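Incident review: delayed structure delivery

Summary: a single-chain prediction request sat in the queue longer than the usual turnaround. Root cause was a stuck worker, restarted by the on-call engineer. No data loss occurred. The affected request and its eventual output are reproduced below so the record is complete for anyone auditing the incident later.

Affected input:
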Amino acid sequence: MIWYGVNDGLYCFNGGAEISHASESIYLSDRINDIGETADSVLVLASYGYGVLFYKDGKILYHLTENNGLSSNICKRIFVHSNDVYIATAMGATRITYSRGHVDALKIFTTADGLLSDDVRDVYADDSEICFATSEGLTVLNTLRTKSNTSSPPVYLTSIKCKGQQLVQDSNYTFKHDQNSLQFYFTCVSYRLPDDVIYQYRLTEDQVWMSTGNSSIDIPYLAPGSYHFQLKAKVINGQWSGTQSFYFTIRPPFWKTYWFAAICALAFIMLVILIAGNQTRAGKRKEIEQLKIKDQVTYLEQQALQAMMNPHFIFNVMNSIQYYINNNEKHEANLYLSDFARLIRMNLDIASKRYIPVDEEVAYLDLYLSLERIRFGERLSYKIDIDAKIDQDETMVPVMMLQPFIENAIWHGILPKKGSGHVQVEVTKEKDGMLHVRIADDGIGISAAKENNIHGIKAHVSKGMKMTQQRLALIGKITGHTLYIHIQDAFPGAQNKGTKVEFLLPGDLS
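Output delivered after worker restart:
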C-alpha cells in the first residue's frame, strides 16, 4: 500500500486502485504537505492549516495544533527518528515525543535555540545530532543537549489590585458591582530564556485559555458573577507550569438582584390591583350616577307627561266645542271633538314611552297645531319640515321635547301680537348624525313677552320649558354628546322680532 498527500487530501494506492480518505474527516480533505510513519505504523500527516495528524486504521488518533504547543498550524515537512517526530514550519520546528502510542511532550526550536532563522524548510535527526535546514542556512544541534531543558518553570502571582488597593491572594474576595476592574501582576522564573516566557490565563474553568507575553493583565468591567482566575506559564522550549489561582465574586447592583425584582413585581401587582380597584369603584360610582341621572330623567318625564295637557288649552278647546254646539254647527263641533279625542288618545299612548319615532312626534305636533289653528282661525299658521335624510320610522326623539317650545311660541309670541302669526318647525340631520331642531315664530319677541307677563300662561309655559332644558342636559350626560339650546330673536331688525329656539338631539337614541 502506498500513501500520498495532495492538495485535496489523503490518498492511498492499494491493489491497483486509488482510494481517497477525504470523506473520513474534514482534516483529511485538505492539502497534505508531507507524510511520516512511526514504528507502530501510525501515519504522521503534515497538513496545511490544521497542524499535525496521527492517523491509523481510518481514525485520527491525535490532532496537534498551536493550542497544544505546535510552532505553527501550517506544516511543511516531517521527519521521524525513533520516538521523535520533527515538524518543519515557517515559525520554527517542533519535536513531538511519541512513545507507546502516546504523545508525551512537545518542544519548539527557534532562533532562541541557535537556529539561523525561524523559517525551517526541512529537518534531519539521528541519535546524536539534529540538522535544521533554514532559509538562512543549516543549523546543527546536539540531540542530548536539546532534551535537557524541558522542565516547567515556576510562575508566581506577585500582586493583585482593585481600584489601586492591594489584595491578599489567599483570600476569597466579594466585590461590589462598581469594583469590577482588576489588575494582575505575575512573573515566571526562567534564568536561561527570561524573554521567551509565554503566559496563559482564564477567568472561569470553562473558558478558553488566553495567551500573553506581558507580565501583567488589566481586566476591566467584569460582569457580576463568580470567577476563578488561573495562570500558568512556560518557556518556548519547555512545558506548562502548574497553575496559580485566585477566587473572587462580583455582586450585581441591587436593581439587578432577585429580591429587588421580587419587590418590583410585588409593587407592580399591588399597583395593578389598586388601579383595577379604583377603576371598579369608579365604574360603580359612574353606574350609580347614571342610574341617578336616569331616575331624574324619569321623574322629569313623568312631570312633563303630567303637564302635557295645558289646563288652559283644554278649557279653551271645550269652550270652542260649546260655541259650535250653541251655534248649531254640529259638523264643526264633531270634527273638533274628534281631533281633540285623537290628541287625548295620543297623550295616553306616549305616556308610557321615553322615546318615540320622529313620525309619531310629527303627527302629535301637527294635530296639536291644527287644534290651535281652529281656535285662532286666520291668526295662526304653521309649517313642519323634516329633513329627507332622516328615517322617520327608525329615528327616535325624546317624548314631548318640542311641544313646550311650540306652545310657548303661540302663547307668548303670536297670541299677544296684532294680526296673524306663523310658527315654523324644522328638523335637519347634521353630518355627525345629530338632529338639529329649529322652532321659530314671528310674534312679539322675547323682550316684549316678558313685559306683557300674561297671567295664567307664563307660569305653566316657563315650568315646561325649564323641565325641557333640564331633560336636554341630562340626555347629553347619558349619551356623552355635547348638547346645547339657544333662544334668541328671530328677526332682530323687525318690529315683531319673533323668537327662535335651536337645540341638538342625539340621532342614535333607542
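Verification: The longest strand covers residues 225-235.
Action items: add queue-age alerting; document worker restart procedure.
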